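3.2 Worked example (two chains)
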Amino acid sequence: MLPYLLLLTGLVILTASGDLLVRGAVDIAHRFHVPPIIIGLTIISMGTSAPEFFVSLQAALNGSPGLAVGNAIGSNIANTLIVMGLPALVAPLVVTTPGTRRSAGFMFFISLVVAALAGDGILSFSDGLILLALLLIYLAYSFLRVSQSRNDRLSAIREMEKEQNPAPEQELPPPTGSLGQALFFLGAGLAGLGLGANLTVDNALAIAAIWGVGESVIGTTIVALGTTLPEIAATLAAAFRGQHGVAIGNVIGSNIFNILGILGATALVAPLPVSPHMAGFDLWIMLASSALFVGIVLVRLPVTRMLGAILTLIYFAYLFFSFS
């Protein structure tokens, strides 16, 4: 029972540490007046993906690359199915935020890219460089788009002020706590993520040996589901508050960062072999679930309770077939 308890402990530490990291990062972002949609697409998504990043990096350093790549691919599958499905069971989501379609399309594009790069059975150092370069392009484009939108909005306000003298634009709410507290949350979150990742990787490998299954299967299922808990919590909280843009942005941003940031950075540390099972099953499930998610976003289909239940059931069917 010890490996199971230690794995659970590691996942709890990862979840709590990821929350501290997000709280600190969002607080600092508010101080610099970063818009909510960008907080969702970048800061929150990267923060909630931090458990996956630390687990994959630790697995690669420990000589278990199958667990590393399985964790990233499995997390993307979980994001597009259960992270969208579970919140919709309690608070239906409506996709209306401008720019979401472009981000979702980019998410599907990079899913195709990583599937193509994995076609030779390995994600190499050069593949990692390609993925990280795409991440930098995505981040640069996001901030440039927000900067242009902000400038256009300010220009429009100035023109209106000359004619109507309207009320000034509402600012983001002030950050809670001090800058020192925000920095403390960041530091504590990073330290906890390192500890939790070490516990998770070591005991996930022990459980894989007990069950007699490959490390990549454990990575795409148990570990991926565990490290996705921060995304579930963040999306649930956003859905309850009616912040649909942040909720959808969190899913899209997390998937983008899982592929480009996690796989890209981990491939620089060690080559990531892609098992035949992952190439013939998990990657195809990731592409199919991503395509389904993009379709929902493109037609702006409300994620109702019924659709949320369907997405959740599809994910549990995926878990069942992974072990069959």
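3.2.1 Second chain
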Amino acid sequence: MIYINLLIIFLIIVFIHELGHYLVARFFNAHVTDFSIGFGKPFYQFKDRNNTVWKIAPIPLGGYVKIKGLDSIFSKNSISESGSFQTLSLFKKICVLLAGSVFNIISAWFVLFIIFFFFGITTFLPIIGSVMENSAASINDLQKGDKIIEINQIKISDFQDIPMAIGSSSSINIIVERNNKFINKNFDLIFNKDLNKYIIGISSSEDFIIKKYNIYESLKNSLLFIPNYYISSINFLKKSYNENTLSNQLAGPIGIVKMADQMKLNKIKGVLLLFIVISLFVGLFNLLPIPLLDGGHIMYFIISRIFSNSLPEFVTRMYLVVGIAIISFLFIVVTFNDIFYK
């Protein structure tokens, strides 16, 4: 069941990505000839009233939307008749190419909202669980069990409010409650080189509450999660690169399958979390300016427009060769890493 759930996740993500391309292309009156989930000879297909052939193919490693004229954009004999991709303006072409990734990111956000709304948001109370030695907190007699009421005139309702209240300040005014008495303190913070910021030096207690069915909190946390996820991922990759462990962190389809039993895919929350992570990755990866990816196509069309759509054939061929080389290299490296190191 775990591997079936994993396959379903892949197929849904592919479908959402291609659906984005399809809907925006149709919105701009471009004719979509094929919509395929999977590769190879389809075992099921039908044609709709817009003459789009919908296919389900046996190799579930991706999918594609075939827009009239898109397969000949790099040819001198490109199709420019009505309904073809070539007749679209640069803005519309970019919108069609962006749509797949945008749909992936929006779907990840929607599932995040559902998780936060129905499963709830775990919130730790603003109670000090421990105090670091030689920290600003210990030097200024903050103690385990103190409840933080206010920092820098900002009310603290849960523990995660503390960093936001401190911001980039190097000193704070803090009000804590201890033994039913309020204590007001002013003191300087100590700069932490690892975190590259000033910190108090405290951690939360194990006291928490779960907030369910809260639209505002669910919306706020789901919207904040996505940029924080991308920032954390980029910082992690930078750290792995600096420590020369980047290759060990890469995982492709084989690696994900090998780790599937650790992802709790037999539970709905595990399935949804993996859907979110892969959707956000696919959304960003496809926007990278690598030839043959959506981001690479966008870059190509922008450069082509700068040269009045008359790029030398040599440049177009190099674009295709470089794209194939980069994607093939990434596929080989990731697959090799999946097989021998995961």
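3.3 Remarks
The two ends are 21 Å apart (CA to CA).
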